[in-house]
Each structure stands twice: as structure tokens, then as C-alpha cells.
Design brief:
With about 250 residues, the chain is mostly helical. Helices cover about 65% and strands about 0% of the residues. It has helices spanning about 15-40, 50-60, 60-70, 70-95, 100-120, 120-125, 140-165, 175-190, 200-220, 230-240. Mean pLDDT is about 90; it is low at about 1-10 and about 240-245. It comes from Rhodococcus daqingensis. Keywords: DNA-binding, Transcription, Transcription regulation.
Length: about 250
């Protein structure tokens, strides 16, 4: 755990000086994490990157790194957590259902995953080497899959509420789709001679994901045109007028 974490017995609000010091530490931590990520991108896969070199890249003394992180294991966990947080923000933006059709949302979200795997292979590999929190029993990629499954389930539940349908048919859909996409793209990205290019594998997965979603929707009594603007579809099904934001 970072030494900047608040002790359980501290119940009062931080003073202005304490708040500034906390912000200063957070900025230092971010510099260290970003330096580590940049070096992971540059080095061969699996190469050891000494803390001294990370500190130098961040423009800090090695002792500062060890004041901000509780040892190398903690630093590595925080690097993976940083990767997951940053990529989650990217995926959240692509999952914005206020713009685009279901087809477009699926394609752009899956494409973002394919882009990250192929454009940042060393980061992808490092994320698989351990957890985001010490002691956790799943790696960072699995944590990301769980996070995105929960996010997708929340979006589906919100839409179901708006159009007043039972969303229980979708209970297993998000994790099933996320697992399918991640597993297929991992196999594709590591294939030395893939039979399909990036746009083709993205289109294939988007189509398969739609089949799963469409099947669940039909079992709930809902039929959706995957090429229609989703906000307009929601408005029509809910009997609302104007744009619908979820």
C-alpha cells in the first residue's frame, strides 16, 4: 500500500497543507507509473526494469519511489492497476450508448481492444503477469474483464429499466461476450500468421456479439435493429420523446 494512504484512525478532514502534500504525492506516483509504462513499451517483453532506472526516467531519486510504494511488488501491482484504469476509461468512452447504433458501439469497442493488444503488446503481456492488488488471485486482464462485464451489465440494466422489460435474460451475456472477445483477440494477436486482418476479426467478433445480444433481447420480447441509432431505439421503445441518455 502506498504510504500516502490515509490511516484508519484519521477521521478529520485534511488541512490545506496536508491536502497539498497528498496532491504532491499523487503527482509523484503518477510520474513514476507513467515512467514505468513508457519503459515497458521500450524494452523487450519480460525484460527486468530496475527501480533505479524508473526513478531516473521519472526525474526522481530511487528513495522517493520506495517512499511512495511499499516495495517492488506493490509498484508492479500499481503499474498494472494504472494500465487497467487508463484502458477502462478508453473502453467506457467507446461504450457510450448516447451515440451510434448497437453495431457501431460493438465495432468501436472491440476495435479499441484489438488496437490495444496489437499496438501495446508489451503492456498487454505485463498486465497478465500479476494482480492489480497484492494478494489478489486474478491477474490484471481478468480484473479488467470483470470490470467491463459489470459496466456492460449496468448499461443493459439501465436500458431495460427505461423500456420496462425484464433484463434477467442478459445476466450471463456481458461476461460471455467479454470473455469471447478477449480470448479470440488474444489468440489472433499472438498468431504469427493470422488468416484475418484487424478489421476483419473486429467485424467477426462484433457480429458474434450481436447474435448473443439479439438472442437475449428476443427472449425478453424485444426486437432491435442493430443499424439504427440506439438512443432513438430506446426512445421509441420507452415511448419517450427526444434523445435518451443512459
Amino acid at each position: 500500500m502506498s504510504i500516502t494512504a490515509k490511516r484508519p484512525e484519521e477521521s478529520r478532514s485534511p488541512s490545506g497543507h496536508e491536502a497539498r502534500w497528498e496532491q504532491h504525492n499523487l503527482e509523484r506516483q503518477t510520474r513514476i507509473l507513467e515512467a514505468a509504462v513508457a519503459m515497458l513499451e521500450e524494452r523487450p517483453a519480460g525484460a527486468d526494469i530496475p527501480v533505479q532506472e524508473i526513478a531516473k526516467r521519472a526525474g526522481l531519486a530511487k528513495s522517493v519511489v520506495y517512499r511512495q510504494f511499499d516495495g517492488r511488488d506493490d509498484l508492479d501491482c500499481r503499474i498494472r492497476a494504472h494500465l487497467v484504469d487508463e484502458f477502462s476509461r478508453t473502453l467506457d468512452a467507446e461504450l457510450d450508448i448516447s451515440t451510434g447504433s448497437v453495431e457501431e458501439i460493438l465495432v468501436r469497442t472491440i476495435r479499441a481492444v484489438a488496437d490495444w493488444m496489437t499496438d501495446h503488446p508489451r503492456l498487454n503481456e505485463f498486465a497478465r503477469t500479476g494482480p492489480t492488488v497484492r494478494g489478489a488471485d486474478i491477474d490484471a486482464v481478468s480484473s479488467l474483464k470483470m470490470r467491463m462485464s459489470v459496466r456492460a451489465r449496468e448499461l443493459i440494466a439501465s436500458i431495460a429499466t427505461l423500456i420496462d422489460v425484464d433484463d434477467s435474460a442478459f445476466d450471463s451475456v456481458p461476461f460471455a461476450v467479454v470473455t469471447m472477445v478477449e480470448g479470440t483477440l488474444t489468440q489472433w494477436a499472438t498468431d504469427p500468421e493470422p488468416t484475418r486482418d484487424r478489421s476483419q476479426i473486429v467485424a467477426d467478433l462484433a457480429r458474434l456479439a450481436w447474435f448473443v445480444l439479439d438472442g437475449a433481447a428476443r427472449s425478453a420480447g424485444v426486437t432491435v435493429d442493430p443499424t439504427a441509432e440506439l438512443s432513438a431505439v430506446i426512445a421509441r421503445l420507452s415511448g419517450a420523446s427526444g434523445d435518451v441518455a443512459v
